[in-house]
Amino acid sequence: MNLDASLEALLPARQPSAADGELLPLRVHGTTYAIPADCVRECRDLPPIVRIPDAPRYVEGVFDLRGDIVPVVDLCARLSPQPPGADARLVVVVIDERDVALLVHGVGSRFRADPASLRPPPGFHAAQPEPFITGLVHHAERLVLLLDLPALLDGICRSLLGSPALPALPAGCR
């Protein structure tokens, strides 16, 4: 299996929504985002990451997760101009039965959003919409932006799939 096929498999059909259950807050620079907690396999410190030549700036590389090769998407580079610091963490999520790791500045505690507090995203980006922000919710006296992981990863995977310089993974790395 090559990396192209591996990343194409990340494109999901549906992501659980904020109304489905608990959310996990992710800190990227000074902004708090949240993803459905039931998509999260684990949170971990940074392992050694193998860089991929000519990958988009927000693809950090891949790492070995107990024998599985997992792509690392740098949400810090994707959503913020600030690079991750020493407190950076990986959040391994499962999208359509595939693991992908999100590099973030920090991770908070799970919380349950009140469905009545969910708000649609503002329409500030008329010229360049951000389809991966699905809404906002109040939590711990802050506004939290809700991420649509399939929409966010779809653009990343499509840009990777269009890159001819990506190497194939060895057969034992499936």
The top level CATH class name: Mainly Beta
The best one-word shape is globular
Structural class: mainly beta
Which superfamily, in CATH terms, is the homologous superfamily? CheA-289, Domain 4
Distance between the termini: 7 Å
Low-confidence stretches: 1-18, 159-174
Helix content: 10-25%
Largest sheet: 6 strands, mixed
Counting H and I runs of at least 4 residues, what is the number of helices? 3
Order of helices and strands: HEEEEEHEEEEEEH
What's the CATH architecture name? Beta Barrel
Mean pLDDT: 75
Q: What name does the CATH topology carry?
A: OB fold (Dihydrolipoamide Acetyltransferase, E2P)
Number of domains: 1
Please state roughly what percent of the residues sit in beta strands, choosing from under 5%, 5-15%, 15-25%, 25-35%, 35-45% or over 45%.
35-45%
Total strands: the figure is 11
Q: What would you report as the Rg, rounded to the nearest angstrom?
A: 16 Å
Write the layout of secondary structure elements.
Layout: H1 3-8, E1 22-28, E2 31-36, E3 40-44, E4 59-65, E5 68-74, H2 75-79, E6 89-95, E7 98-104, E8 106-107, E9 111-112, E10 133-139, E11 142-147, H3 149-161
Parallel strand pairs: 2-11, 5-7
Antiparallel strand pairs: 1-2, 1-8, 1-9, 3-6, 4-5, 6-7, 10-11
